[in-house]
Design goal:
By secondary structure, this protein is of the alpha+beta class. The chain has one domain: Deoxyribonuclease I, Chain A, CATH 3.60.10.10. The protein contains ten helices and 14 strands. The strands form three sheets. It has a six-stranded mixed sheet with strand order 3-4-2-1-14-13, covered by helices on one side. Strands 5, 6, 9, 10, 11 and 12 form a six-stranded mixed sheet that branches. Helix 7 links the parallel strand 10 and strand 11. The N terminus is likely disordered.
Length: 405
């Protein structure tokens, strides 16, 4: 679901009229990409549709939303990119490939003057969203609703994922934990309310943990093999006092941590080695300071000894938006400049939910969130930028990894 940005006219009126082409060129250099580092990014592009096949139809016809999110990617030029919320339909070419070929690797100009961005390697696969479970998961007596799929969705593949890479993906070595059972996690957070477990045993013992999926995608880079650990845990909302989605979100994040540690219960044929380089990426739907998630899960990942201890990516636009939009943002304790998602300011407010977390054996050069203020762009580009920022309620997050160190 896209929660549109609120950008008021008075913001435009308050921009400095003296900011011109020369100043814009200086700030544009911030997004520059060169061969001294590898840029790794995650972007929830909100390319989900309410019916099966609709996204494919839209992409083939020419879709304005797809053009706008593509403009961001073409400007930032990530070498490795996770797309969240791109519907998967199991057809060839995949919707991710259609998007990449038609919108990213296009010679047509875009509104941000980005360059064609060619991804030779693409990995996508089935996810749990919309796949019927045959169970009454939400316990309302109706076992065939979107909330009763293995992951919430109106049809199989809604809100899917895809990995795009300029470097070779070892497709045969990809690990998927799509069907891993929640109850097989020792100490799983089994939802309960008023002293009673929400799921009866017949349901609990069959539930899959991942709302979409969890993938380890090995990629052969100039740094050697890098394991791209990607997922999209469920939002910790849309439930009741049992906090079933909050519990699931926390355990989906715990799954990432346990995978990094090679937890024996996962019974992996090839556990991640202690010397492996990896990058965790995705819309994890959890903020360590604000929002409704069980924050200890994301904190345990951020503070893990195998995860690089680096400053959180920030943006000028996130800080300005929190002040301008006010509402729930006024009650937040976390730094507003770290926010990556622009959500309903009457309820949850803006949050840091999208992450790119390199392993501690990688050297980070820089990082950021593409949430610029309008005056970071030339005056003639600002109206186009407004439309680009409205294309998704999330913003692209990237980390630059130094090559040769």
């Amino acid at each position: 679901m896209i929660r549109w940005l609120v950008l008021v006219g008075c913001f435009l009126a308050g921009l400095s009229p003296s900011f011109g082409q020369e100043e814009a060129a200086k700030t544009d250099s911030r997004w520059a990409k060169d061969d001294s580092f590898i840029r790794i990014a995650t972007f929830n592009v909100s390319l989900n549709r309410p019916a099966a096949g609709r996204l494919r139809d839209d992409l083939q016809a020419g879709d304005d939303q797809a053009k706008r999110v593509a403009a961001v990617i073409r400007l930032l030029q990530p070498d490795i990119l996770l797309l969240n919320e791109v519907d998967y339909d199991g057809r060839t070419p995949s919707t991710a490939e259609l998007f990449a070929r038609r919108y990213l690797d296009s010679s047509d100009p875009d509104v941000l003057d980005g360059k064609p961005c060619k991804y030779e390697y693409i990995f996508t696969a089935p996810v749990n969203t919309g796949v019927p479970s045959g169970l009454d998961i939400n316990q309302n007596g109706k076992p065939d609703e979107p909330d009763d799929a293995w992951g919430y969705g109106r049809f199989p593949g809604q809100y899917g994922m895809a990995v795009l890479s300029k470097f070779r993906i070892d497709q045969e070595a990809v690990v998927s934990l799509q069907e891993f059972l929640w109850s097989d996690m020792p100490g799983a957070r089994r939802p309960a309310a008023d002293g009673s477990e929400f799921f009866p045993d017949a349901v609990w013992n069959k539930l899959r943990l991942s709302s979409k999926s969890f993938w380890d995608v090995p990629i052969q880079t100039p740094l050697g093999k890098v394991h791209f650990l990607v997922s999209h845990p469920t939002p910790p909302a849309f439930d009741g006092p049992e906090d079933r989605n909050g519990c699931r979100n926390a355990d989906e994040i715990r799954l990432i941590k346990d995978y990094i540690e090679g937890a024996p219960y996962l019974a992996l044929e090839r556990p991640l080695s202690k010397s492996a380089a990896f990058v965790v990426a995705g819309d994890l739907n959890s903020d360590a300071n604000d929002g409704g998630s069980q924050a200890e899960a994301i904190e345990s990942l951020l503070n893990h000894p195998r995860v690089a201890d680096i400053p959180a990516p920030t943006s000028l636009g996130a800080k300005a938006a929190a002040k301008r939009q006010a509402g729930a943002n006024q009650k937040h304790s976390g730094p507003a400049e770290q926010d990556t998602g622009d959500f309903n300011d009457r309820s949850v407010g803006n949050l840091r939910v999208d992450y790119v977390l390199p392993s501690s054996n990688l050297t980070v050069k820089d990082s950021g969130v593409f949430w610029p203020e309008l005056d970071e762009f030339a005056p003639q580009k600002r109206q186009d930028l407004l439309q680009v920022l409205r294309a998704s309620d999330h913003h692209l997050v990237w980390v630059d990894i130094v090559v040769g160190k």
